[in-house]
Structure formats: C-alpha cells, structure tokens
Amino acid sequence: xCGIVGYIGHKEKKEILLDGLQELEYRGYDSAGIAIIxxxxxxxxxxxxxxxxxRQKTKSYTSNGFGVAIGHTRWATHGKPTELNAHPxxxxxxFIIHNGIIENYQEIKNELTAEGVQFVSQTDTEVxxxxxxxxxxxAKTPFEAFTNTVKKLEGAYATLLVTKAAPNTIFFxxxxxxxxxxxxxxxxxxASSDSPxxxxxxxxxxxxxxxxxxxxxxxxxxxxxxGERKISKQALATDKVxxxxxxxxxxxxxxxxxxxxxxxxxxxxxVLDSGIDFDEFDKSLFDGIYAIKICACGTSYHSALAxxxxxxxxxxxxxxxxxxxxxxxxxxxLTDKTLFITxxxxxxxxxxxxxxxxxxxxxxxxxxxxxxxxxxxxxxxDAAILTRAGIEKGVASTKAFATQAMVLWxxxxxxxxxxxxxxxxxxxxxxxAMLHTPKALVVEDKLHERIHRLSKRYLHGHGFFFIGRDIFxxxxxxxxxxxxxxxxxxxEGYPAGxxxxxxxxxxxxxxxxxxxxxxxLLYDKMKSNVEELSARDATILAISPxxxxxxxxxxxxxxxxxxMVEFFEMMVVTQLLALEIxxxxxxxxxxxxxxxxxxxxx
Length: 602
Ligand code: AGP
Hints:
Bound molecules: 2-deoxy-2-amino glucitol-6-phosphate
Strand content: 15-25%
CATH architecture of the largest domain: 4-Layer Sandwich
Structural class: alpha/beta
Distance between the termini: 31 Å
Strand order of the largest sheet: 3-2-4-1-10-9-11-15
Number of strands: 27
Number of domains: 3
C-alpha cells in the first residue's frame, strides 16, 4: 500500500523524507521516490525495490535552506513496478505523489492526450499533474488550478503536489485515502499515518474526505466543498509502535479489521464484469496442463486445501494438495502435465521453496501465490500472483490467509473460463459473490463485542474441536491452528463427517466443539454431525446464519447466497474468537511463544 510523506521548512529535507518513508515500509511497496524544491530548483530521485536503493542513489545529495519536499513509496496497482511508474510524477514544472486510485483517470487522460499532453507512465496518478498544469494556463493562481483539478478527480486519493509555479507551497487533497498534517512551529509535515511524524511534529490534524488546501511556510489553509475550514489540531501520540497499530491492541487485531479493505485490492483489475483476468502471466502457462499440485505449509496449506475443492468443482481440474515438508521426502511421482503451485505468505518458507525447486528439477511449470514480491519463492517460480495483503506483522496469519483463499478462488474460475468448464451464468454468480466478499469481511462492533463476552467461557476445558465440511473443513483446520498458535490451548480441526469414526470418543461437556454450519453448503449433513456430538454432551458453539436449538452458544452470521461469502464471514469469527480467548489468557498474540513469522529453516 502506497505511503506519503511531505515537509516544508528549513531542515535537511532528504533525511526527513527517507526516514518518514522508512516508517511506512510496513505498508508494503515496490518502488520509492522523492522530489524537493529549493531556491526555485526542482530535484527528484526514484528507484525500484527497497528504500536502501533510493538511499544509495541520493547519497551525495543534501538539501539546505528553506524548501518543500515530498516522498512516496509505491505499491503497484496501475502499471508494473518500474522507475517510470514510481512517484513523484513530473509534468513540465510540477511533481505529484498520490495514494489511492483515480477511477476516471482514463477519461481525463483521453481529454489531455487530445490536447497534445504526453504521458510517460502507465499510472492513473500522472493525470493529476498534467491536469494541474493544463488548468494553470488559464487559472488566476496555482491554487485555483489545483482546486479545479481536484474537482475533476473521482475515486480515492491522498495527494501532494509541488510546483515551480508556487515554489514555497505544498498543495494537498484527500478523499478515501488517509493523510494527516503535522505541525511543529513553522515546520509542516504530511504523512499517510502517524509514525513518520512522531518525534518531529507535536500537533496533528487528520484530514477528512473532501478536504484540500495548501501549506506555505507557517501557514496552512484548509477548504472543503463549503469553503474555508478551521483546522482543529490535536496532540500527537509519542509511541511509534502504538501509532502503527492505528489504535488497535495488537497488529493481529488490526490485520483482521483490514481484511475487508485489502480484499478489494486483491481483486482490483483481476475481477472484471466479464470474468477473471491476470496480468501476471500468459494463458499459455496452462497449455498441456491436466492437473494441479499445490504445496504449502501451515495456514497457506489450509487456503490451498480449501482451493482443492474449488479447482475440482469449478475448473474441473484434478488438484492434489501437499504439505511441503512431507512432499520433499516422499519421492513424489511428478509429470510435466501438472502445474506446480506454491502458496506462501512470506515467500521464504524453506520447505515450500525446496519443494518448488524439486518440482522445477522434474520439469514442471510453476506458479506461486505470495504476499511478498521479489521473495525467494516468487523469484524461483515461472509466474507469480501477489496477494496484495500488505505487510502482515502478526505472527498468526489472518489477512494473508484471506487473500490467498481469494486468489485461489479467482484462479479456479480463471481456469474454468479457459477450459470452458463453467457456463456464463455461473461465472456471473461467482463474480457477484467475489464482489460481495469485502462486505462479508467487515467486522461489526456488535459481533466483536459478542465474541469478547463469549470468550470468557472458553478458557478452560480439555480441548477444542473445530468441525466443518467441504471448504469449511480447511477453515476448521485454520480456526484450530489460529487458536492453538496464540492461546496455547489444545485445538484440532476435523471434517465433521469423520468425527464418528473415532474422535467422538472424546466428547463430553469439557470438550468444546466449534461447529461451522453454513446454510449454503451441506447444512443438513452438518446438523446431523453436530447432533451426534450434542447427544454425547459435548459443549457446542455453533456459527451459522440459522439458529440451532442444540447449541450451548451461538454466533449468528448473515444469510448469503454463496458458500465462499459464508466462508469469509465465518473466518472472521474464528479469528476473533482466537484473539479474544488469547487476550483473556494474557498472551502476546502478536509474538506467540516458539513461533516465527518466516520459517526459513527445515
Ligand atoms: C500462520 O498463522 C503460521 N504462523 C504458519 O502456519 C505459516 O502459515 C506457515 O509457516 C507458512 O508460512 P508462509 O505462508 O510464509 O509460507
């Protein structure tokens, strides 16, 4: 997710920008850039990859005296992560940085191109700077030109513009993407979140949607659709880690809440009205492919297991799933008609990476589904689909799992389209369900509060069974893994229909059963399995849109018309349950004992 910083004042500007961008690294990015105007001279630097590359490039540059400066980390949406696409974008005499998506950029671009404006990048952002300079031909002041430009923009933006036409000024505007202004005497800062300005500014103003304005030395003017507005500053927190958590108690909690938003990013440009499209690879990747093998570990293995149902059901393609550490030593029989898919949040998991290398040695084509660009697994694969979850800090994976499941669902539909195994009306149903997913992931206060209250009843006992059927079986595995990772309580995931073949022997009132009971998939079968447990006095927590009279506790989810929408809503419930139980037990849920975020050893 892109990051923005800005500064006006007398201090050395390059270090302020680079340090600020470093604080925003956790958002994820693939290129970075800065622009500075000092003594009427415009300077800019851009680099792809890590900030360190930009640091190296700017090593011999320092900026002294009064000036204005803007910096940006870009997380590619429109156009690949190249230096040309990196921000700031230059017009003839102005620079722009932007976070968000300009939905009507094509329309604006067409108008400007017709007037002879040349575009050099593939980004939506570039239209802002050209639009500004175009308006500035006729406007009375640069601010009027900026105001007219902002009025044309549709979509999401937090944007800063600097221009030689007003060399002591930063113009700013915000709609649906976060941005704040920090104050320290006459020095003014801008940033996407608190952390870049902590320790620098002592007061802050969080911009509201629709606000725009300009900052000059010691003076900030703020406007909205009704005219000029007063800036009500507030004191700034001083703890950086607290600031990065945006007010949540834990990164894991923040990441659970982020799922709705990041899911839209995962789908952007890929889920179209007509079906699924992936820019990342050519459809020839699937030439001669008759089966899929997916290798992964832990949570990533669970998303893969859920996908195996979708690949067979939607794409009508044979799909086997393997735990990477098992696969490596089983002397697997591999044929080049199989596409080898790896799923990994970090892209560095040793077992998954080695499994991929083995498959490549056997001549298989490979595709990775990963959250970290340029990671070892991505580099090793023939093609990669990035999950776009943004950096995940909680060791217990949440949003990475959600976005993996979404990418795999999209991929199953993509292959179904390619192989003509899914009729047009079914494609429409799947697309519609995908577009409903962000809504299903919104955490409502009422739900969180209910889970918080319920959690106190689940701190003892001799264990948990999470049960589900079909795609809800991998979700049960994931729910159990989440709980054991952070609560240290014993939990197992089981296919509900399998309980009677042994595990039901454990059933008693001290055995907690978390039953995933979606209405859109095998509800009656699932109900019978839960009844069998209830008859043996197990304590049942049912998660379902349908009230279930035998349940000891009940969390009601919404009625949906697609199992995957129910899948995502129930996923949030299991994540919050694990979180709340663990918090009550006094555990550090972000750094659970014995676990590491990236498992680079065998
Ligand atoms: C998830 O909560 C875990 N911490 C763990 O199971 C993880 O999913 C596993 O180690 C695989 O990691 P990867 O996705 O980075 O490959």
